Amino acid sequence: MREAIRPVRLGVLLGLFGLVFGIGWAFWLVLGHERIHASLEERAAAVERTGVEAAVTGHAEPSGQKPVLKTHSHTHGGDGHNNAVATGEMKAQESHGAHKSPVMELAHTRLVRGHLHAMGLGLAAVLISLVVAGTSAKNWLKTVASISTGLGGLIYPLAWVIMGYRTPSLGSDAAEASVMTIAGPGVALVLLGISIAAAFLIKDMFSNQ
């Protein structure tokens, strides 16, 4: 048994690392919920500030004169108080609703998918390693299949986590495009390991008959 597992030990270890990462990330999503959302909101706010500054710069007067704020000369003290209260309520509602904005919701969903993919692919790496260990494939092919599945199972969930953190600042499509260089190789590695295991499993089934 020990000799049969020897070529795939590293892949099994990578799969176990993936499971540990998935469990740990799930705990962080729950225990660090406020910190995560604060970080996401800060990224979104930074983008908004940059957009406002760019708009102000773009609409600056050529003469270099500072923009003059227009005010009404006739105001009532009660109106000013009511406006201040209304402004405070609006800000409170905005800060409370930031959690439920579409971009923030999408970012959180992508972070959760990082946990789901880590758990699923970690378990898949262990299973594929054990399956390929029992086939007639050469030891080096068993090692390649095992390591490929385990390594891809770590890379792909990490791409989802990075995508989630980048979503508030880059937007949905740009954040997805920014991690394709990470997610693509991860998927390719997993498919390579599964293909090797499946090919030799089918070969052995027909050769035994």
Task: Describe, in plain words, how this protein is organized in 3D.
The chain is mostly helical and 209 residues long. The chain has a domain at 7-39 and 99-209: Four Helix Bundle (Hemerythrin (Met), subunit A) (Up-down Bundle), CATH 1.20.120. The protein is built from eight helices and no strands. It has helices spanning 2-5, 9-31, 33-58, 77-97, 102-133, 139-170, 172-178, 180-208. The longest helix is centred in the middle third of the chain and has 32 residues, at 102-133. Residues 60-78 and 80-98 have low confidence and may be disordered.
**The CATH top-level class label of one domain:** Mainly Alpha
What proportion of the residues form beta strands (DSSP E)? under 5%
Large-scale geometry: elongated
CATH A-level architecture of one domain: Up-down Bundle
> Can you count the helices?
8
Mean pLDDT, as a whole number?
81
Helix-strand category: mainly alpha
CATH topology of one domain: Four Helix Bundle (Hemerythrin (Met), subunit A)
Number of strands: 0
Largest sheet: none
Radius of gyration: 27 Å
Order of helices and strands: HHHHHHHH
How far apart, in Å, are the first and last alpha carbons? 25 Å
Low-confidence segments, given as residue ranges, are: 60-78, 80-98
Q: Helix amount, in percent?
A: over 70%
Q: From the structure provided, what is the oligomeric state, counting identical versus distinct chains? A: single chain
Give a summary of the structure in a few sentences.
The protein is mainly α. The chain is built from eight helices and no strands.
